[in-house]
């Protein structure tokens, strides 16, 4: 027994149980989300040329540098700031001046996340808060949509405009499909919406691709599939009802699903773990609320698009939704009563 | 046999049972010294009956049960009492223990004893015989078995549930007992059903043990209403509450025992131990232990005399590998790290798992991102995310309002938490604090 002394010499570690750990970790989840966005970014670049990469890089830089400057030491490694920056970038028009994208990323992280106490503490989705700020501060730059037909290598707007100067608008612009239907009652073919051959924000196009990328996250359980599913079902049902009532005034359900930022918002922003309900029952309520608000704002609100405000409004309700949908503990009278009712039915 | 039954939620940790699942049980030689803590069971510790210098034979009673919820302690080897004093206990504390120097050349023959014939005995007599033999639950909780055999008059028990789930990763103790001694398990079930006066018994075995299920099926007695039920492989399937739910659909209300919903649960190894009492007359002085893990050179299933030190068992299993960093008593999900390799195997020790750097490397903790994975894992439907936030804020009274008492400390929430928050550890501390506050208030 040559190992005898080995048992005695060992410096034993003491840890609390459980001594095994599932392989998932918070940085792994976050970097998987970043990774799943790569095809979406590639598609945006395909449709909008170098402008797409420039805008995304600027928004991401604004978010990451703010996190680095004011966040906790080492908090960049968890990947959440990168997600905020990239998602914000995907909601911006391709021709937006880069300094505006940078400011949006910085605002989203600074006022959307860090003032609340950093990762896990914020109430509102930081990317959408950044976008809401830009929408209020720079309404013209945020609603200038270049046409999708420009030559690939050409910039889609005055990306390099100096801060606080009026961008020189020399690119060809066009209205987005949602703008067309709202202000001109012209519907766009849903198929071109799905594959992305339309004008709009960087991530408003190529709905099918975003569905696939988000689906990957759902399969890995890195997002709660109940949220996008309930949003899509509600949007389809509500817009379907309106379409059935008056198909000349209202958009078809397929158009409602694939236009604007709905797919991106439902798959990537509403499912932000920190700002969505922690219970599964709550996820359904949250998703139904968003779907309902999106159609409400798009149809009767002053703006053509309502995904951003729908998600932000429902973010504010998350604490109440959580409280209302607490699980019923094992063996408690509530749970026993539920089971008795089920058995009486059967 | 029908499809596997189960409960909702739970987790699927890697099983790692292949290390020892097919390794037959063998007997470990007697070590030079045996250390028998007086507290090896839930309830009051035993009172010592011997003093230093006394000679004892194997199976002699050396500690007396102190009350009804207590059991005696027996010498697991012939030898001489060396000392009675504090010694490292596997729960991490120092506890009163009897140290016996083992006879170097002893036939280890117990004194002649009367083997009771169970069929002529009244339930009370069976209960006494089981208590005298020092039998406790061998699944890990070490609750005195005889207490479960004597339900109070106001509860009606109709079903005996036999726990062969063994849901903890790595452990194969119950697996080997069922595979190698199925008749003994069946005999224990027979005695238990007779004593409890129940007509129906169900054996629940996780489906990752096909050879155990086959062995039990071959030996099923025709004259008993005894069902063999395969269970879904999922942790914590072997927890009493989860097992009762899976096999009968009943839920135990908070603060109540399984017998209040008409069920008594007994682990297969405990039943084999009861059977042995009526087969040989010997008390509980040895048990099957799985010594395993990536940090152990020769993972084995062993019959170990109660009181053998961890060091002796590890040495018999070829010693530790160079990567070994941590020794866990019991399964890796619920078991405790051992600070001292001189702590003894006790009646409730199901296994020793030696882990390496790979499993025990420190992990950075991140803030709760409210992913909800812990809610999906919690088998008793709590909100561990909320409880964890309350615990970190020191709001312990509110934790009690959030049903902390229902928590079984199974560790599923900590296992899945991507932010590595030590949830079940915080809940264990909060529970202890709640207990203290209750005592101070009383």
- Indicate the overall shape of chain A: globular
N-end to C-end Cα span of chain A: 65 Å
Distance between the termini of chain B: 51 Å
Poorly predicted runs of chain A are: 1-6
Order of helices and strands of chain A: HHHHHHHHHHHHHHHH
- Total number of beta strands of chain A: 0
Largest interchain contact? A-B, 53 and 68 residues
Reading side by side through the largest sheet of chain B, how are the strands ordered? Answer: 1-14-13-17-15-16
Helical region count of chain A?
16
Computed Rg of chain B: 22 Å
- Radius of gyration of chain A using CA atoms only: 23 Å
What kind of sheet is the major sheet of chain B? 6 strands, mixed
- Beta-strand proportion of chain B: 15-25%
Helical fraction of chain B: 25-40%
- Compute the average pLDDT of chain B: 93
Name the shape of chain B in a single word. globular
Question: Averaging pLDDT over every residue of chain A, what do you get?
Answer: 87
List strands and helices in order, with pairings.
The complex is a heterodimer of chains A (346) and B (442).
Chain A: H1 4-9, H2 26-48, H3 50-70, H4 80-90, H5 98-112, H6 126-137, H7 139-142, H8 177-184, H9 190-195, H10 207-219, H11 226-245, H12 253-258, H13 262-269, H14 280-300, H15 307-324, H16 333-345
Helix pairs in contact in A: 2-3, 2-4, 2-10, 3-4, 3-5, 4-5, 4-6, 5-6, 6-15, 10-13, 11-14, 14-15
Chain B: E1 26-27, E2 33-37, E3 47-48, E4 55-56, E5 61-64, E6 73-74, E7 79-88, E8 94-102, H1 123-132, H2 145-149, E9 159-164, H3 173-180, H4 182-196, E10 200-206, H5 210-218, E11 225-231, H6 240-248, E12 263-267, H7 268-280, E13 286-292, E14 300-305, H8 310-316, E15 324-329, E16 336-337, E17 351-356, H9 357-360, H10 373-377, H11 384-392, H12 396-401, H13 412-416, H14 423-441
Parallel strand pairs in B: 1-14, 9-10, 9-12, 10-11, 13-17
Antiparallel strand pairs in B: 2-8, 3-5, 4-7, 5-6, 7-8, 13-14, 15-16, 15-17
């Amino acid at each position: 027994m040559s190992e005898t002394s080995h048992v005695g010499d060992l410096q034993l570690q003491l840890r609390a149980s459980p001594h095994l750990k599932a392989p998932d970790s918070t940085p792994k989840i976050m970097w998987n989300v970043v990774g799943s966005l790569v095809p979406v970014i590639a598609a945006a670049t395909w449709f909008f040329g170098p402008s797409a990469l420039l805008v995304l890089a600027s928004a991401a830089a604004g978010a990451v540098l703010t996190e680095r400057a004011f966040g906790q030491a080492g908090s960049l490694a968890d990947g959440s700031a990168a997600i905020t920056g990239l998602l914000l970038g995907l909601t911006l028009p391709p021709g937006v001046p880069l300094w505006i994208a940078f400011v949006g990323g910085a605002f989203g992280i600074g006022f959307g996340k860090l003032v609340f106490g950093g990762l896990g503490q914020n109430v509102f989705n930081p990317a959408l808060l950044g976008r809401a700020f830009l929408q209020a501060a720079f309404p013209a730059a945020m609603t200038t949509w270049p046409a999708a037909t420009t030559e690939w290598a050409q910039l889609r707007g005055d990306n390099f405009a100096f801060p606080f100067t009026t961008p020189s608008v020399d690119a060809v612009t066009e209205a987005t499909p949602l703008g067309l239907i709202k202000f001109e009652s012209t519907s766009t073919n849903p198929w071109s919406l799905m594959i992305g051959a339309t004008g709009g924000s960087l991530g408003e196009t190529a709905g099918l691709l975003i569905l696939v990328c988000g689906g990957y996250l759902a399969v890995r359980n890195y997002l709660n599939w109940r949220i996008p599913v309930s949003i899509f079902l509600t949007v389809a049902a509500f817009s379907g009802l309106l379409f059935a009532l008056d198909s000349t005034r209202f958009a078809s359900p397929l158009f409602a699903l694939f236009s604007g930022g709905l797919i991106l918002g439902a798959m990537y922003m509403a499912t932000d773990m920190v700002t969505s309900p922690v219970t599964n029952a709550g996820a359904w309520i949250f998703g139904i609320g968003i779907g309902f608000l999106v159609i409400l704002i798009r149809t009767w609100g002053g703006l053509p698009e309502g995904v951003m405000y729908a998600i932000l409004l429902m973010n504010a309700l998350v604490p109440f939704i959580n409280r209302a949908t607490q699980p019923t503990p094992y063996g408690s009278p509530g749970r026993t009563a539920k089971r008795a009712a089920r058995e009486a039915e059967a | 046999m029908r499809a596997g039954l189960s409960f909702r939620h739970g987790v699927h940790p890697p099983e790692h049972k292949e290390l020892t699942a097919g390794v037959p049980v063998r007997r470990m030689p007697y070590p030079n010294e045996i250390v028998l803590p007086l507290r090896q069971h839930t309830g009051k510790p035993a009172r010592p009956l011997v003093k230093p210098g006394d000679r004892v034979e194997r199976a002699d009673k050396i500690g007396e049960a102190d009350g009804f919820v207590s059991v005696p302690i027996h010498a697991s080897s012939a030898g001489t009492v060396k000392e009675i004093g504090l010694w490292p206990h596997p729960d991490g504390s120092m506890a009163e223990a009897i140290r016996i120097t083992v006879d170097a050349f002893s036939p280890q023959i117990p004194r002649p004893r009367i083997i009771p014939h169970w069929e002529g005995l009244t339930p009370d007599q069976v209960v006494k015989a089981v208590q005298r033999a020092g039998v406790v639950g061998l699944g890990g909780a070490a609750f005195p078995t005889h207490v479960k055999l004597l339900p109070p008059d106001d509860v009606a028990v109709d079903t005996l549930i036999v726990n062969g789930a063994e849901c903890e990763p790595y452990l194969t103790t119950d697996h080997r007992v069922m595979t190698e001694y199925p008749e003994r398990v069946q005999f224990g079930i027979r005695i238990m059903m007779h004593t409890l006066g129940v007509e129906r018994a169900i054996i629940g075995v996780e489906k990752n043990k096909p050879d155990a299920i086959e062995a039990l099926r071959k030996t099923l007695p025709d004259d008993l209403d005894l069902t063999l039920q395969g269970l879904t492989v999922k942790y914590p399937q072997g927890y009493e509450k989860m097992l009762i739910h899976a096999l009968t659909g009943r839920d135990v209300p908070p603060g109540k025992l399984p017998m209040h919903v008409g069920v008594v649960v007994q682990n297969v190894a405990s039943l084999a131990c009861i059977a042995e009492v009526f087969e040989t007359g010997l008390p509980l002085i040895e048990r099957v232990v799985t010594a395993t893990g990536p940090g152990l050179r020769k993972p084995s299933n062993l019959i170990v005399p109660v009181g053998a030190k961890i060091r002796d068992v590890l040495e018999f299993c070829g010693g530790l590998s160079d990567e070994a960093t941590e020794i866990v008593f019991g399964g890796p999900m619920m078991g405790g790290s051992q600070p001292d390799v001189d702590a003894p195997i006790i009646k409730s020790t199901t296994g020793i798992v030696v882990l390496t750097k790979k499993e025990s490397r420190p992990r950075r903790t991140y803030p709760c991102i409210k992913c909800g994975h812990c809610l999906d894992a919690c088998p008793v439907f709590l909100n561990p995310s909320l409880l964890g936030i309350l615990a970190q804020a020191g709001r312990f009274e509110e934790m009690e309002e959030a049903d902390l008492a229902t928590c079984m400390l199974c560790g599923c929430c900590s296992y899945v938490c991507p932010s590595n928050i030590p949830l079940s550890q915080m809940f264990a501390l909060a529970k202890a604090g709640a207990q203290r506050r209750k005592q101070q208030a009383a």
